[in-house]
């Protein structure tokens, strides 16, 4: 709902501000990308091409229907980079600010729980939150851009200006978990270069942890015992998924001649680790995704769906959501009555929120996959991969995005938008809707299983 302030319509709920802001950014980006100067050839991009690219950039996804370094001019690439930066900064800052606003709206006890267990932002003012997000963003991006620029200039003989541009573009794209690259084959050409893959992976991991975790690590890095439940869940869950993903992808693709078999054993492990990092959050690829084994696609679907940390640039339903579900399952299997995590009891409201978000996301993914199966001839494995990649704002593709009909590309646009803002706004809305009840119905247990 909106309220009139003078002649302006002002959104009432903070989540509405986020949605409106992202829509405006996408529309502005679409208009700029449709300008003739945005493409090197005559004419310009079509509305759908511009809209898809702008949505992918603002939602820091990385899915494309055109070849970024070939189709777009220097101006077009600069617009894409600006949209990535706006989208990435917006996701981190707005998500974190929602945590602050949520904490202030609830009662004192709930505020303390919200600060300690959901967003870990404390009760700092808005200015300090935004400044903290900006400081971390600029620091990481400048360091990575410098590392990549020096390496491009020294190892690949790029001219100074080109090295700086390529370093800056891939640095911003990596930290914001966008996955846009200025190479037609993404980073396949650097499959044996750890000085490119590892710094980019490090930036992706940092951006994917989420600002609340980064802020708390900066303040309490020597006192892990005092870390919040959110920070512990993100760090433990991310480490587990990175290690497990590395082992799985390396083993699954070890003998695949179209992906890793031609690489040395060390480079196979390097690329297994890199794709494990990227699969949960960003759309770079150092091996040909379209030639991977179907079982690898299935495993990557799971990693993409889980995603990274909350209030960061990573996509997916967030590692904390699935960590909560894991502990609920573990408690139920052990016959426990309360879910305890790291010495603290988990609020029952969080149980319901996690289950609600996951079930709604599964329903959306299944419905979108079935619709695309009806209007295209691509196999279910590729379509599901594309749908999950769009919804989780990862940006990896088996190569079918450009071949989808316009209706299919519109579905992916909606999935990218919903996937980027849906979990944030839905999670906040569920938390803010919590209210005491004045009566309870009698209990009854239906048969399960």
Total domain count: 1
What is the share of helical residues?
Answer: 55-70%
> What's the mean pLDDT score?
85
**What is the C-alpha radius of gyration, as a whole number of Å?**
22 Å
Give the topology string: H per helix, E per strand. EEHHHHHHHHHHHHHEEHHH
**Contiguous helical run count:** 16
- Contiguous runs where pLDDT drops below 50 for at least 5 residues: 4-8, 105-123
User: How much of the polypeptide forms β-strand, as a percent range?
Assistant: under 5%
* Strand line-up of the largest beta sheet: 1-2
Major beta sheet summary: 2 strands, antiparallel
Shape: globular
SS content category:
mainly alpha
The count of DSSP E runs of length 2 or more, i.e. the number of strands, is: 4
Query: N-to-C terminal Cα separation, in Å?
Result: 42 Å
Q: How does the SSE layout of this entry go?
A:
Layout: E1 2-5, E2 8-11, H1 14-33, H2 47-58, H3 68-71, H4 74-105, H5 108-119, H6 126-156, H7 160-175, H8 194-209, H9 211-220, H10 229-253, H11 265-279, H12 294-306, H13 319-333, E3 340-341, E4 344-345, H14 348-375, H15 380-391, H16 406-432
Antiparallel strand pairs: 1-2, 3-4
Helix pairs in contact: 1-2, 1-4, 1-16, 2-4, 2-16, 4-5, 4-6, 4-7, 4-16, 6-7, 6-8, 7-8, 8-11, 9-10, 10-11, 10-12, 12-15, 13-14, 14-15, 14-16, 15-16
